[in-house]
Amino acid sequence: MAQHNDMDKQQYDNLRHSCAHLLAKAVRELWPGAHNAIGPAIEHGFYQDFDMGDVKISDDDLPKIEHKMQEILPSWKKFTFQEVSLEEALRLFKHNPYKVELAQEFTAEGKKLQTNDPGNFLDLCKMGHVDHPDKELVHFKLLSIAGAYWRGNEKNKMLTRIYGTVFPTKEELETYLHQLEEAKKRDHRKLGKEQELFLISPSVGSGFPLYMPKGALLKRTLENWLIAEKEKRGFTFVWTPHVAKSELYKQSGHWQKYDAMFQPMKIDEEEYVLKPMNCPHHFQIYNARPRSYREMPLYLAENATVYRYEKAGELNGLLRVRALTQDDTHAFVRHQDIGIEIQKVIDLTFHVYKTFGFNDYKARVSIRDKKNLDKYMGNPATWDKAETALVDAVKKQHVEYFIGDGEAAFYGPKIDVMVKDTLGREWQLTTIQLDFIQPENFDMKFTNEKGEEERPAVLHIAILGSVDRFLGILIEHFAGAFPTWLAPVQAVVIPISQDQNEYAEKVLGELKAGGIRAENWNEAESMQNRIRKAAGEKVPYILVVGKREAEGETVAVRKRGNVDLGAMRVEKFVQNVKEEVEKKV
């Protein structure tokens, strides 16, 4: 779906939130004992949470709910609003414990309470709504049902969450539903299983992916390429352990400010923790000896696995895991060089995107929530300086950007870059955080030209973000049909019969000697079945060898997409593939 300006976004939010009210009314009519909780607008849609009591509903009930929504809609001419006191709210919504809790909470925060009513459904809500619901809420669709804890807290009751979407026009709705269908076909969990790339084993635990041989090869190929690209640009690589003393993370502030750390463990009577971040480890390397301005900038990089306690309901294949590999880098830079170094990192970022065909992207400059400054470390002047430096950097790149209020990390503002995939879905990938706080926490220094001590600034850089999440996005972006340079298996040799297997093995040897990832598929099944299987697994090249090919020392080449390239000598095929891999096309 196309991006909209702020006004457009508000209008879409109003539309979607209004439709959540319509959904709540329909469910309450169908199941009078149900309590509606919250129903916010979300990207491309909305959801509404319900306490259904003893009633169990499923996706099979969605058509019935949609039909009831369509029955109700013509009577919804206009939302009316009224400010009420807490006492009035408690009386009006005494039947609904969720509205009672919200009313009490809003009043304690000094917020005013407001009801709205489209004519026959009183609710407690202050969000935006459409002016003419009967005309504007026509093009909606309910999508799925899931469970969700009240307020996202696992200690609270599990509610029933119904997801839906709504658009101003029938055409927009149909386009979006088509994209959803295409996304189901591309689902990385489905393709990951079909192509034997990764699995989530219940015996290992949710959120801890296991990479199978092809998936591990895919991951390693991606990482090795990015390592090479970084080394060309002066990055140096380090290795750090998966655990550290808790004191290290207390010094960095993660212990106090970061809420996704696993519980600590005792080793030799000391407290240790699985690392959620690599930065405190890298700071130890920086501080291992005195540093000079001649070493600056110093880039310490590592493809390292970190561990974060994500909620069970938020885990999603490779896109949200508890053990994730970061293509992490910490750049220690002089303050006067901050802008130059950010430019270098952004240049690398865009080079990576273009390699994968991501040509539509924009940046978010994430700054403090100035109404909640106690969330952040450091003084306001330092933050002002850092936020200004990041805005200046993205302006110089002439890239579309916007400000993300309250999205900064606790120790500094950041640039987040979002890209669109082939389905037009937006993903947040690269993060570049500017940090003046941790150099103070860890007393980092270097000696300048005058022999005086200075503090560096630190850039926390992740180009791909999480390598695992990036792989999940790539699987869906390419629908499992990876470019030849990245594909775990680049070519399969298929002998027509066992009589040609000896020649097929010879071809396989030449391919491997040429650095091509290849396999000989000589199973005792028909050639056509093997070709269909290779096409289904989206292997870039299929090399068929029969009697004629064996006698002429050639291979019959088929390119992915059923493109017949005809007979070719093996060395010519190897040369062609190596050129394709080199160009990353």
Provide a brief overview of the structure.
By secondary structure, the protein is α+β, with helices and mostly antiparallel strands. It has 3 domains: 6-186, 2-Layer Sandwich (Threonyl-tRNA Synthetase, Chain A, domain 2), CATH 3.30.980; 215-241 and 275-314 and 327-477, BirA Bifunctional Protein, domain 2 (2-Layer Sandwich), CATH 3.30.930.10; 491-583, 3-Layer(aba) Sandwich (Rossmann fold), CATH 3.40.50.800.
| Topology, number of strands | 28
Sheet with the most strands: spatial strand order: 11-15-16-23-20-19-17-18
Low-pLDDT parts are: 1-7
β-strand percent reads: 25-35%
The CATH C-level name of the largest domain is Alpha Beta
How far apart, in Å, are the first and last alpha carbons? Answer: 27 Å
Task: Tell me the helix content.
Answer: 25-40%
Question: What gross morphology would you assign?
Answer: globular
What is the count of distinct domains?
A: 3
Instruction: Count up the helices.
Output: 19
CATH structural architecture of the largest domain = 2-Layer Sandwich
Give me the CATH superfamily of the largest domain.
Answer: Bira Bifunctional Protein, Domain 2
How would you state the average pLDDT, rounded?
Answer: 92
Main pleated sheet: 8 strands, mixed
From the alpha carbons, calculate the radius of gyration and give it in angstroms: 28 Å
> Helix/strand-derived class?
alpha+beta
CATH topology of the largest domain: BirA Bifunctional Protein, domain 2
